[in-house]
Amino acid sequence: ISVVVRVRPPNEREIASAQGNVIHVLDDRVLIFDPPGERVQKTKFIQSSQARAKNLHFGFDKVLSPHNTQEDVFDVVKNSIFSKEGGLLDGFNCTVFAYGATGSGKTFSMAGTPENPGLMSRAVQYIYTALEGMGRKAKLKLSYLEIYNEQIRDLIAPDDNSKNLKIVEDPEKGIIVTGLSHCYPTNTDEVLQLISIGNNRRT
Questions:
Q1: 112 vs 110: CA distance, rounded Å
Q2: How far, in Å, CA of 92 to CA of 79, rounded?
Q3: Integer Cα distance of 90 and 26 in angstroms
Q4: Ramachandran quadrant class, 82 (left: phi over 0; alpha: psi -120 to 50; beta: rest)
Q5: Are 68 and 6 spatial neighbours (Cβ–Cβ below 8 Å)?
Q6: Number of other residues whose CB lies within 10 A of the CB of residue 23
Q7: Fewest CB atoms less than 10 Å from the CB: which of 10, 90, 93, 125?
Q8: What would you report as the CA-atom Rg of the chain, rounded to the nearest whole angstrom?
Q9: How many other C-beta atoms are found inside a 10 Å radius of the C-beta of residue 63?
Q10: What are the Cα distances from residue 131, in Å, to 128, 138, 192?
Q11: What is the DSSP letter of 6?
């Protein structure tokens, strides 16, 4: 398991508030939460301990600053799940789990934009290119689901199919979602089209 943190740049509202940054990237493995001299303090007659900066240091496998690009994000993933030995292309199960508060940049990192693709698009392109380079033929099976408020929705199939979706443990396949639809795209464009359909159906 590798834990990677990406710090997004401040948005227009945050810049206009002029409250300072609560995160400072120290290097590519350490960030500081509530660094000294960053947070703007409100003037008070009596200073409390809460007014002091916490200056908490946290270490991770990789820290990406606001200056890092979408390509930088993919390079981190590529060096991990697409490693030459024991990676996804060798048949190992791999997962990229994007976690964060609303507005933290998960969708941009994973989906991106047509002009600046995210992790999903770049990973799919890499898979097809890598397989072609190795002279291997493989069938890519794709499903796309959403879990929101403990409800599972199939983002590719019509909404009528989602009411029967359940997460179960299969003795042979492991953890699966029963009733989840799947497609067999043959190229990157077909995958991106399916992802686009799924993104438009997200809650």
A1: 6
A2: 14
A3: 35
A4: alpha
A5: yes
A6: 18
A7: 93
A8: 21
A9: 21
A10: 5, 8, 18
A11: E
Strand 56-59, strand 30-33: pairing: antiparallel
Place of tokens 């979706």: 165
pLDDT in tens, 52-93: 778 999 999 999 999 999 999 999 999 889 887 778 888 888
Q: How far is CA 3 from CA 8, 17, 69, in A?
A: 16, 31, 18
Q: Which residue has the tokens 């799947």?
A: 182
Token pair 């497609």 in the structure block, residue? 183
Counting as low any pLDDT under 70, the low residues of the chain are 40-51, 158-163
The distance of Cα 71 from the centroid of its chain, to the nearest Å, equals 13
pTM above 0.90, yes or no: no
Which residue, 101, 124, 120, is CA-closest to 109?
Answer: 120
pLDDT digits (tens, 9 = 90+) for 188-201: 889 889 988 888 88
